[in-house]
Design goal:
The protein contains ten helices and 15 strands. By secondary structure, it is an alpha/beta fold. Helix 3 (101-110) runs parallel beside helix 10 (370-380). Strand 14 (355-356) and strand 15 (363-365) form a beta hairpin. The termini are far apart.
Length: 411
């Protein structure tokens, strides 16, 4: 198979879902559902964010402040997010019973516990497979994170590399996206014509699912070149760049808004450095201080632009942090009682599901885990999470049959 216009990374761009049932695809496309995931890597402290316990032995130094929803209080480290609470929901009864970073991330992103016997696809890849319009020229799942870029095929598991995440490192456009300056459009078209003829000859003799997947992904990448400006956040108005902030996370959030407005189905934004085994409070002042304004601005922008009702927003980590404060003024890994924030996509607004005890050491009401959350995400998107994946050679349920959706959140 020949492919010369775009670099190897883009050869795996996800999207052309020729396996999806046409009627389902048309229905989902008409709904224009999107997903925005914030992953606070390292494990954000629920006590310094969504479930503060001031004036207790575990509460730490920060106050709880009122929000735009009477009776709901969150940490004073999130003053602007507090003003958006009428658009958010808090799930305060999360118990995932998994304190390992890697295994916790797998459980939260796939809705299944990590197992050497079977790897399941991450939420973004599932959305790319089941929700992204099959004719979309853009990737179905883009991940914006600090550091390097590339393709994470593990995200897609058995769905195949077409549905893997394309990682945009440091908010920079995918590598090799632009046509070389010395290559004219006419010359580029000629070489693509040659490539297509060679591919046709190859597939006539040795057609396989892998070559079809490669050819479809390459063709999508070629179309992506024509929309390279989608990834250029500098094209956003200067006042918007100022509102989001000049730091990396601010630029990443503005890029996420731009990508969603341009039609991408799933965008994940990673914010790092929450693994605060020492100096927990100083780290959370810094990290949540950086998170608060861009996140609140993005939620408000999605609402003002009429997109929040069709965009599922999830703020997750791999786990929370211990209620007890260690001798280094840190909090360690804690998965037995922590919180996740959700918004949009027709869910309830301003709700709190679940409750922890007075000092946050245990869930005392409406305990849920990552399986329940995964079912809830998909149900909000209009996907029957109890069904099997279409197009596979054996039945595999989309959501873990041991879990079910949090019905109280679904409108």
């Amino acid at each position: 198979m020949m492919g010369a216009t775009v670099g190897g990374g883009l050869a795996h761009v996800s999207g052309l879902s020729n396996l999806i049932q046409p009627a389902v695809a048309e229905e989902l496309a008409a709904r224009q559902k999107r997903v925005l995931i914030f992953f606070l890597a390292g494990g954000v402290s629920q006590l310094e964010s969504w479930d503060p316990k001031p004036n207790t032995d575990t509460g730490g130094p920060f106050r709880a402040i009122p929000t735009s929803v009477p009776g709901i209080h969150i940490s004073e480290l999130l003053p602007l997010t507090a003003q958006q609470m009428h658009r958010l929901n808090l799930v305060r009864g999360v118990n995932t019973a998994e304190d390992d970073h890697g295994k916790g991330a797998v459980f939260m992103e796939t809705g299944r516990r990590d197992s050497p016997a079977q790897r399941y696809p991450a939420l973004g890849s599932v959305v790319s497979r089941l929700v992204a319009p099959p004719t979309m020229a853009l990737p179905g799942y883009v991940h914006i994170q600090p550091g390097g870029g590339g393709v994470n095929k593990a995200d897609a598991a058995f769905l195949g590399p077409k549905f893997a995440s394309i990682t945009i490192g440091n908010g920079q456009p995918p590598a090799y996206l632009l046509r070389p300056g010395d290559l004219t459009p006419a010359a580029d078209q000629q070489r693509n014509d040659v490539r297509l003829k060679a591919n046709q000859r190859f597939t006539a003799r040795r057609r396989t699912a892998e070559t079809e997947a490669y050819s479809a992904s390459y063709e999508q990448a070629r179309q992506l070149v024509e929309r390279a400006d989608v990834f250029d956040v500098t094209k956003e108005p200067p006042q918007d760049q100022e509102r989001y902030g000049s730091h990396d996370f601010g630029r990443h959030c503005l890029l996420a808004r731009r990508l969603l407005e341009q039609g991408l189905t799933c965008v994940k934004v990673t914010h790092t450095n929450y693994d605060s085994h020492s100096e927990n409070f100083d780290f959370h002042i810094e990290q949540l201080g950086e998170f608060d304004r861009p996140f609140a601005t993005l939620i408000d922008d999605l609402a003002q632009r009429g997109m929040l009702d069709s965009t599922l927003v999830v703020v997750m980590s791999e786990f929370g942090r211990t209620p007890n404060i260690n001798h280094l003024f840190g909090r360690d890994h804690w998965s037995k009682a922590w919180s996740v924030a959700l918004a949009g996509c027709g869910m309830q607004k301003g709700a709190v599901i679940g409750k922890t005890n007075d000092n946050g050491t245990a869930v005392v009401d409406r305990e849920v885990d990552a399986r329940n959350l995964f079912h809830t995400y998909l149900r909000a998107l209009g996907v029957d999470s109890t069904a099997n994946y279409p197009g596979l050679n054996r039945p595999i349920p989309i959501g873990d049959p041991a879990g079910d959706a949090i019905q109280e959140l679904l409108a």
